[in-house]
Amino acid sequence: ISKCALTNTNTNITTTNENNEIMFNKFKDLVKDEFKQFKDFLLNKDKIENPENIPIGQTLTDWNICGESVVGLAHRRRNEVCQDAIYYANNARPILVLSDGAGSGLVSELGSKILTIGMCRFFNSLNEEFQLFLDNYKLLNDEEAIKEKCDYWSLIALNHAKGLLEDTAILNKRNIKDLRGTLLFVIVGKY
Prior knowledge:
globular; 6 strands
């Protein structure tokens, strides 16, 4: 079980993944409320004094990240290791990477750790490239450009993740299937 939080200190937005329906519903209501406030802000942004009419982006240093992975109850009862991993960085921009190791993978906990650490470091090294995409207000209304950039970066991330797992499998004399798991990540931009 991985629990994480990504919080913006200016707006008190908190995202979390917990196995608790009540918390999920509270979170859902909070997100709806924050989304409504953000939408209202966007609709009224022209009223803010801004001679060049440049949208006001969020400050990337206003985000805090924390998280941990723990052994779930079923795994604890069977005396199994935690197969999930989380890794994050908040240097130039907030980056959060989660991996849920597949129970069918013999050493999926290793795959999860390698994926989270390797992908977080990889994304962190690409800050200048992400600035062109995630911090570019000119892309806000260009859905086709956003989709193109998302597809491009998704393919780059997929290839890097696959390479991390292939290298780990070779070094550990394992089949790559032994390392399988899911990969989720968040990279925050100004817009």
